[in-house]
Hints:
The chain is of the alpha/beta class. 36% of the residues lie in helices and 13% in strands. The protein has a 6-stranded mixed sheet with strand order 4-5-3-2-1-7. The longest helix is centred in the last third of the chain and has 20 residues, at 197-216. Residues 5-107 form the DR2241 stabilising domain. This is DR2241 family protein. Residues 110-205 form the DR2241 4Fe-4S iron-sulfur cluster binding domain.
Amino acid sequence: xxxxxxxxxxxxxxxxxIGQIAIRPQDGVYLLCHIDDENSxxxxxxxxxxxxxxxxxxxWAEDGHYRFTKGELSLKRGWLLQLSSSEELxxxxxxxxxxxxxxxxxxxxxxxxxxxLRDKLNRQTGMYRFARTLSDAGAxxxxxxxxxxxxxxxxxxxxxxxxxxxxxxxxxxRFDGVTGDIDRSQAIxxxxxxxxxxxxxxxxxxxxxxxxxxATG
Length: 217
């Protein structure tokens, strides 16, 4: 079954949310809006049609800053997007949260591949090669300082430091990838299968700081 068809079946089965997006099937179309606008007067929301609009809606936050990672908890409000087919729904959700629905289905199917942090960092070259030497303690600390809703990322972390070293307990490591108060069975969680480029960049800085501290200590 194609991804759009699986997505349509999931919505028909009760899925109503992904990230900060509320999904409502209505008279053969799909209506998307910000979860905080779900109970607002629809006549007051700006109307859009078509999946391409999702790219613009997801690029800039309410305060105008560029959303460098789509997992940011900063999606702007005030719009209502109408989609005419399950394929348009798939395309729109891929603009809002790239590959998120596909990762969820892959996890359901038991075929989701996860890359642990050490494997990710050991692949880094050039200026980012310094990230390879980040200590385990530094990596654990960085997770709590960079990831999780407290730092505006609302993805569920699936990776560990390595195959034998889980993440320490923290708000970031506990977060389940579902935003807001909703029955978890009605939401597609945002999944983090590998550390993002932002985390790698922060790992490089933290590793250099560790090396500098050793040199001056």
